Amino acid sequence: MTDLLFSQKVDEEALDQLESFLNQISSLCDKHNDKSLNEWLDAQDVCEILNIQPRTLQTYRNNGKIGFSQIDRKIFYKPCDVEKILNSNNSNSKKQRHA
Question: What's this model's pTM, rounded to 2 decimal places?
Answer without folding.
Answer: 0.56
